[in-house]
């Protein structure tokens, strides 16, 4: 029988992950610059302890990615409990901006094959969380009926194209434009006249 991890080992692991998250936040998601000895020092553990939990930087980054994704997914229910559906969706998408920055850093720092495995194992959780928010928005009449999760994910792909120096200025603007586009049409004429040249 496998034994449960000792509580101090779990606490050490949690401190290491939190220290790595804090460092990534300070470096605007630059995962390639993450230094394990600095993470160990910040977490108050020896390097041997860090390497027992995370043999490589890639293992640590993968765990940070999972942690960030879990926090994002777990935020859905409280946001829906506290806000009307469209407001909850807007707040969640703003949180997703921070997640996207970490995701981009992790993608750049680990091997493509490892990223594919990690992403394929986790991405359905993000789809389910977003789907719940969209369904609640549709039920309240605040989100267009024809919009689905894939539509929004494709639009959010624009975040991956923002150059890092422009991230803070553009990411939240993109989210605001996406949210505006999710609202149902209120009698506005959006049809274009037929153009014979198209």
Automatic annotation (TrEMBL):
SUPFAM superfamilies: Homeodomain-like (SSF46689), Tetracyclin repressor-like, C-terminal domain (SSF48498)
DNA-binding region: 35-54
Keyword Metal-binding annotated: no
Keyword Transcription: yes
Keywords: DNA-binding, Transcription, Transcription regulation
Taxonomic superkingdom: Bacteria
PANTHER family: HTH-TYPE TRANSCRIPTIONAL REGULATOR BETI (PTHR30055:SF234), HTH-TYPE TRANSCRIPTIONAL REGULATOR RUTR (PTHR30055)
The protein's name: TetR/AcrR family transcriptional regulator
